[in-house]
Amino acid sequence: MKKVETENRRNFLKGSLFAGAGIAAGVATGSAGSAFAAEAPVKDACKRYSFENPPAPIPASAIKTTKTADVVVLGAGVAGLSAAIAAAEKGAKVILLEKRNTFTMHGGWNGAIGDRAHKAAGITIPKDKVMADLMRFGAYHPNASLIQLWANESGRVMDNILDIADAAGVQYKVDTDIKEHWPYTEFPLAINFFPAMQFTLGQMFEKKCKALGVEMLYETPAVQLIRKSKVTGVIAKGKEGYVRVDATKGVIVCTGCYGSNREMQEKYSPRVLKTVNNQYSEGSNTGDGILMGMWVGGAKQETDCPMLWDGMIPGHGIFVDIARQPFLNVNLLGERYANEDAPFGYTANADNQQPKSLKWTVWDGKWDADKEKLHGTVCENMHIPVFWNSKSYDMWKSKGVIIEADTIEELGRKMNVPVDAFVASVKRYNELVAKGVDEDFGKDPEKLTSIVKAPFGAAKVGTGVLVTLDGLRINTKLQVLDTEGHPIEGLYAAGNASGDFFSNDYPITCVGVSHGRAVTFGWLAGERVAALKA
Ligand SMILES: Cc1cc2nc3c(=O)[nH]c(=O)nc-3n(C[C@H](O)[C@H](O)[C@H](O)COP(=O)(O)OP(=O)(O)OC[C@H]3O[C@@H](n4cnc5c(N)ncnc54)[C@H](O)[C@@H]3O)c2cc1C
After folding, report:
1. Does ligand 1 lie within 6 Å of residue 514's CB atom?
2. Cβ neighbours around 183 below 10 Å, total
3. Cis-peptide, bond into residue 195, ω within 30° of zero
4. How far is the CA of 179 from the centre of ligand 1 (A)?
5. Backbone angle region of 198, left / alpha / beta, with phi > 0 → left and psi within -120 to 50 → alpha
6. What are the start-end ranges of the H helices in 185-342?
7. What's the CA gap between 211 and 94, in Å, rounded?
8. What stretch of H or E contains 373?
9. Which secondary-structure segment (H or E) carries 415?
10. Distance 70 CA to ligand 1 centre (A)
């Protein structure tokens, strides 16, 4: 067996981390969603949204082309590519429809339990504790059987993926960098692929699909499912007109989330409207598959689960690492309001409760030394030499994102917060640092760093959304359920188009479980549908 090294998050190649997110080497390339900055969420119970009126069926006369496959997969993200490979490996004829002109990948952490990379690295993950954490994060809204299915199967599925990686000569490592002093237990579930993290996985998956004969139709968005008693296929919109794709065994919906669909956000997750930035920069995540599923009788998960994070610079479409560190945070009233060192979704929730859903992150002249102590992980560490150095600091200062002053009073004035309240907050915080105990909000003493040395610095930040995780209700056979809980024959879902796995907040403590769910359930759906009789 291939030797698998472990990887400390401090060391991996950083430039590829945000592939697909429109961010490289600390330079913003623009992003969707920033128009939503600091707006109050709208939720009008009487409002009828356009998507609530199912579109008229596309007439047979409008169909230009007809195709047939055993298994039809919608969406070439992590879930869809995984489903297509698994189905094709079982010998099924597979057609994969994708809206964009290429596959979609983000980030790089893929969570699994019991795979051979973890075993080779000598890491045993306590499955029961991970399952308990996922249920607790979701306040017991998730379907425990789906969580159990992932916990039991993710290792086997990951092993299949590692086989593909080995055959392709792709390197991978378990990420072992966890926050040791945290009051929250972080589980090192994730595997990274190199050199370009998730983009490498996407390239590898696409090649494998082609090698297995999967017919991949890019720029061909699915628009309507075809259901008589069961779902028998889908209509997509190709460049030459409508294409009907009949599925003799089943359709697997892997079209991702609704993070870029403003109407769906309003109805299903109005807190997303408080974010200043959308990190899914491609914008193709408009909830199409969730809507198509609902139009043929499928039910959506009741609760929401946006993957929110903190530290987004309003108007810049990017986060700046120093502003995401658990330094002192104050709101626009100059008041400290929470433990700054919570899981990033929790921090975003606390930030969103503040006036205008904005805060200031405040540090002092020894920030470079303090970052060692703060030790953020999973997308929030400052040990990325490409991004974090004094050059980067100066660049953000020159753009006016980082402001500096020689005294706390002057900084407060520049921040435009009530100066007395701000000075009192800093004074109190420094007292707590000196005591070594956060008597006010219970921050880990390890993360208490004083604000004493000029120049004092600050950045105003809001929250961002990466994806939404609440999709169509499914059972453990990955079948989409109707509003009575009955499976809709012929219709399956995986990844963010599916639901009942996450609720309330993304459990970042279970590192990489979002990709972990997508890749595992995609694979299981592909295997299952391929094994059906036509
Ligand atoms: C910047 C960023 C970083 C992230 N980092 C991580 C991480 O490191 N670890 C982790 O676990 N999670 C991470 N996530 C979340 C994770 O990427 C997603 O939850 C996961 O990729 C979902 O996979 P999916 O296949 O369900 O959906 P997606 O990856 O969204 O793929 C859906 C695909 O369907 C296509 N599509 C949409 N509509 C249609 C249609 N009508 N017809 C055909 N195709 C359609 C889309 O174009 C897309 O290609 C990150 C998210 C972002 C935005």
Report:
1. yes
2. 11
3. yes
4. 26
5. alpha
6. 198-211, 262-268, 288-295
7. 12
8. helix 367-374
9. helix 408-415
10. 24
Q: Where are the alpha helices (DSSP H) in 4-126?
A: 78-89, 116-120
| Residue range 206-243, pLDDT digits in tens | 999 999 999 999 999 999 999 999 999 999 999 999 99
| Bond preceding residue 455 cis, omega within 30 of 0 | yes
Instruction: Please count the other Cβ atoms lying within 10 Å of the Cβ belonging to residue 329.
Output: 29
Is the predicted pLDDT of residue 35 greater than 50, yes or no? no
- Report the pLDDT averaged over residues 140-152: 98
Under a CB-based contact definition with an 8 Å cutoff, are residues 89 and 524 in contact? Answer: no
109 lines ligand 1 (CB under 6 A): yes
pLDDT of residue 387: 67
Contacts of 444 (CB under 8 A, 6+ apart): 181, 182, 183, 341, 438
Characterize 30-53 residue by residue with b for buried, 16 or more Cβ atoms within 10 angstroms of its Cβ, and e for exposed: ebbbbebbeeeeeeeeeeeeebee
Q: How far is CA 57 from CA 82, 223, 289, 294, 474, in A?
A: 30, 10, 16, 14, 25
Closest by CA to 214, choosing from 120, 85, 64, is 85
pLDDT tens per residue, range 278-302: 999 999 999 999 999 999 999 999 9
pLDDT recorded at residue 439? 98
C-alpha span between 511 and 516 (Å, rounded): 9
pLDDT tens digits, residue range 413-427?
Answer: 999 999 999 999 999
Calculate the CA dihedral of residues 113, 119, 120, 122 and round it to 10 degrees.
Answer: 110
pLDDT single digits (tens) 240-270: 999 999 999 999 999 999 999 999 999 999 9
Q: What are the chain's domains?
A: 64-305+469-530 (3.50.50.60), 307-465 (3.90.700.10)
Both structure tokens of 227: 């259901």
Provide mean pLDDT across the span 181-194.
92
Listed residue (303, 298, 319) closest to 461, CA to CA = 319
Pick the residue whose CA is nearest to atom 3 on ligand 1: 107
pLDDT at res. 319: 82
Q: Is the CB of 279 under 6 A from ligand 1?
A: yes
Residue by residue, DSSP assigns 284-322 as --S-HHHHHHHHTTB-B-SS--EEEEEEEETTTTEE-GG
Residue type at 258?
Y
How many other CB atoms sit within 10 Å of the CB of residue 237? 18
For ligand 1, atom 40, the nearest C-alpha belongs to: 221
Q: Are 133 and 185 in contact (CB under 8 A)?
A: yes
If you measure from the C-alpha of residue 471 to the centroid of ligand 1, how many angstroms do you get, rounded to a whole number?
13
